[in-house]
């Protein structure tokens, strides 16, 4: 079985830092890294780590600006991004799918399959 690799991406938000501390207590064999989004190579560091999941604070605008979700999902298509939203007391899990399309009807078929 493959060991989970989790990155907490934070610009030092208390929520993300607290979650990282709690996860270290409960994750067992999973590999947990904390990356400061304000560092110049933060986005490249996340991509190089090739994590299974990235956890971030949804209210941390600096993380959203410095590490766009689209860039992460393009570089790591199997990645799950877990956005922690303390105000709503919920999480949002963002994933990605890649499908080839050659014609407009291919897109229509994909959209129809989502309904």
Task: Explain what the structure shows.
The chain is 38% helix and 24% strand. It has a 5-stranded mixed β-sheet, with helices on both faces. It is elongated and about 50 Å long. The chain is built from 5 helices and 5 strands. The protein starts with a strand and ends with a helix. It has a single domain, classed as Rossmann fold. The protein is α/β, with parallel strands linked by helices and 115 residues long.
Task: List the defining traits of the structure above.
115 residues; alpha/beta; Rossmann fold; 5-stranded mixed beta sheet; 5 helices; elongated
Give average pLDDT, whole number: 87
The CATH topology annotation reads as Rossmann fold
Q: What's the helix count?
A: 5
Give helix % range.
Answer: 25-40%
Structural class: alpha/beta
Strand content: 15-25%
Q: What is the CATH architecture term? A: 3-Layer(aba) Sandwich
CATH class: Alpha Beta
* Overall radius of gyration: 16 Å
General form: elongated
As for the number of domains, it is: 1
Report the oligomer. single chain
What is the strand arrangement across the widest sheet? 2-1-3-4-5
- The total of beta strands comes to 5
How many strands, which pairing sense, and closed or not: the largest β-sheet? 5 strands, mixed
Order of helices and strands: EHEHEHHEEH
Give start-end ranges of low-pLDDT stretches: none
End-to-end Cα distance, whole Å, is: 34 Å
Layout of helices and strands:
Blueprint: E1 5-10, H1 14-26, E2 31-36, H2 42-49, E3 53-57, H3 61-66, H4 69-75, E4 80-85, E5 90-94, H5 104-113
Parallel strand pairs: 1-2, 1-3, 3-4
Antiparallel strand pairs: 4-5
